[in-house]
Amino acid sequence: MPIEMINIGFGNCLAVSRVVAVARADSSPLKRLVENASAENRLIDATSGRKTRSVVVTDSHHVILSHQSPATIRDKLIGKTEATADDEDDAATGPEGRDGE
Predict the structure, then answer these.
(1) Count of domains observed in the chain
(2) Alpha-helix runs per DSSP H in the chain
(3) pTM of the predicted structure, to 2 decimals
(4) Any domain includes 34
């Protein structure tokens, strides 16, 4: 059985079956979770130096940081959007697109 993967930005992929939670990175409890994971060598930074927008927790207790928003990752997990190889910023064009259509 093949492993289903989604793109979480900058060519980094995540195994869908391993995801336990996806959350915004700006709350104090999530910041503590990230600090603890870093101290225990369970942190994976997939932001490529960009601002961390979401934190993904896996069933192996690894914590993954992503530049993509939690909503984008959630939509990819439930199959509403297609993962692209170069998905850097969903908010750049907005819901209407560049030409307002």
Answers:
(1) 1
(2) 28-39, 70-77
(3) 0.77
(4) yes
